[in-house]
C-alpha cells in the first residue's frame, strides 16, 4: 500500500521544500522515498532506508547525486512537466525587456494622486518607448523540453530563431519547427543574436558559459535571459557589461545580491515553474514515478 506523509504542513500538495526543522524529524527516517521540489538536499544526511528520491521539477542540482549513487538511491525528475510554465515566463521576460511595461506602470502609480495624470502621460510616455521582438534574432541555448517550446513560440511571434544543442534527442528534434536554424558552434549564437536565452542544465561543462569572453563576442545591446540556473553566468562580468551598456537587459529568475539591484536587470524569485498547472503536473508525475518504482 502506497502511503505518503506531508512533511510541510503549509503545502497544499505536500511538495514544498524541506526546511531544516523537517529534515530533522523522525518521520523521514521511516520513509521509503522522498519527494522534493527545489530545496537543497546537499546538507541533509540521507536516511538509510530511502530507496528513491523524486525531484518534482527538471534541474537535479539540489540533489546530492554522488551520495545517492553510492547509497544505491534511485533519483527521478519530472522531465517536461513544468516546461510550459517556464516557457511563458521566458516569453514574458523577452517582452518586458523590450517594452518598458514595468517602468510605465510604476510611473502611473507614482502619479496616482495627480488629477492631470492623463495629460502628463502623453508628455512622459516617450521615456518608456520600446522595440518589438518580431524580426529580431533569438538564440536558444539548450533545445530540451523548455528550450524547444521557447524556440517554437518565438517562431510564431515572428522572431528569427537560432538553436544550439549538441545533444538534442530525436524526440525533441521532431517537436521543433523546421524554421529553427541549427547552429553548430555556440560562438555563432553569441555573435549573431539580439536575444539569447539559456535552457541548459547546470553541469561542470555549462557552469560559467556566459563569461567575460563570451559577453565580449556578443552584439552591443544584446538581451540575455537566464531562467535555467544562476551559476551558468559569471554575474560579476555581466554586471560590468550592463553598466557599460554592452548588455542592454538581463532577465533572470535567480535573485542573487550581485544582480538584484544592478542596472537594467529584471529579477524574479525563481518563479518560472510557479504556476498551479506546472506544480500539479510535476507533483503527479513524481508520485506516479515513485509509485511505479516502489510497487514493482
Ligand atoms: P531538458 O533536460 O529537457 O533540456 C536541457 C537541454 O540542454 C538538453 O536538450 C541537453 O542536450 C542540452 N544541453 C546540455 N548541455 C548543453 C550545452 N553545453 N550546450 C547546449 N545544450 C546543452 O531540461 P529542461 O526541462 O528544458 O530544463 C532546462 C533547465 O531549466 C533545467 O536544468 C533547470 O536548471 C531549469 N529550470 C528552471 C526552472 C525555473 O523555475 N526557472 C524550471 C524548470 C527548469
UniProtKB/TrEMBL annotation:
Catalysed conversion reaction: (R)-2-hydroxyglutarate + NAD(+) = 2-oxoglutarate + NADH + H(+); (2R)-3-phosphoglycerate + NAD(+) = 3-phosphooxypyruvate + NADH + H(+)
Listed pathway(s): Amino-acid biosynthesis; L-serine biosynthesis; L-serine from 3-phospho-D-glycerate: step 1/3
Entry keywords, A to Z: NAD, Oxidoreductase
Class of enzymatic activity (EC top level): oxidoreductase
GO terms of molecular function: NAD binding; phosphoglycerate dehydrogenase activity
EC number: 1.1.1.399, 1.1.1.95
Domain of life from the UniProt record: Bacteria
Family statement: Belongs to the D-isomer specific 2-hydroxyacid dehydrogenase family.
Function summary: Catalyzes the reversible oxidation of 3-phospho-D-glycerate to 3-phosphonooxypyruvate, the first step of the phosphorylated L-serine biosynthesis pathway. Also catalyzes the reversible oxidation of 2-hydroxyglutarate to 2-oxoglutarate.
Protein name from the UniProt record: D-3-phosphoglycerate dehydrogenase
Organism, scientific name: Blautia faecicola
Entire-sequence positions represented here: 1 to 296 of 387
Amino acid at each position: 500500500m502506497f502511503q505518503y506523509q506531508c512533511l510541510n504542513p503549509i503545502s497544499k500538495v505536500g511538495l514544498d521544500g524541506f526546511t531544516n526543522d523537517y529534515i530533522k524529524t523522525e518521520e523521514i527516517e521511516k520513509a521509503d522515498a522522498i519527494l522534493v521540489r527545489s530545496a537543497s538536499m546537499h546538507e541533509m544526511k540521507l536516511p538509510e532506508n530511502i530507496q528513491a528520491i523524486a525531484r518534482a521539477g527538471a534541474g537535479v542540482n539540489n540533489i546530492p547525486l554522488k551520495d545517492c549513487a553510492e547509497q544505491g538511491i534511485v533519483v527521478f525528475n519530472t522531465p517536461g512537466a513544468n516546461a510550459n510554465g517556464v516557457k511563458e515566463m521566458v516569453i514574458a521576460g523577452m517582452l518586458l525587456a523590450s517594452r518598458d511595461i514595468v517602468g510605465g506602470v510604476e510611473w502611473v502609480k507614482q502619479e496616482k494622486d495627480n488629477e492631470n495624470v492623463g495629460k502628463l502621460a502623453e508628455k512622459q510616455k516617450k521615456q518608456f518607448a520600446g522595440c518589438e521582438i518580431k524580426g529580431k534574432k533569438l538564440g536558444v541555448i539548450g533545445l530540451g523540453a523548455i528550450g524547444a517550446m521557447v524556440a517554437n513560440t518565438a517562431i510564431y511571434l515572428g522572431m528569427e530563431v537560432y538553436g544550439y544543442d549538441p545533444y538534442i534527442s530525436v524526440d525533441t528534434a521532431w517537436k521543433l519547427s523546421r524554421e529553427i536554424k541549427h547552429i553548430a558552434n555556440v560562438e555563432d549564437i553569441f555573435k549573431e543574436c539580439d536575444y539569447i536565452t539559456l535552457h541548459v542544465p547546470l553541469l561542470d561543462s555549462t557552469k560559467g558559459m556566459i563569461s567575460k569572453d563570451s559577453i565580449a563576442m556578443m552584439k552591443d545591446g544584446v538581451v540575455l535571459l537566464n531562467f535555467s540556473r544562476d551559476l551558468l553566468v559569471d554575474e560579476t562580468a555581466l554586471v560590468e557589461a550592463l553598466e557599460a551598456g554592452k548588455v542592454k537587459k538581463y532577465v533572470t529568475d535567480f535573485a542573487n545580491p550581485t544582480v538584484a539591484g544592478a542596472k537594467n536587470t529584471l529579477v524574479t524569485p525563481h518563479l518560472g515553474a510557479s504556476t498551479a498547472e506546472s506544480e500539479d503536473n510535476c507533483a503527479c508525475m513524481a508520485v506516479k514515478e515513485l509509485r511505479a518504482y516502489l510497487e514493482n
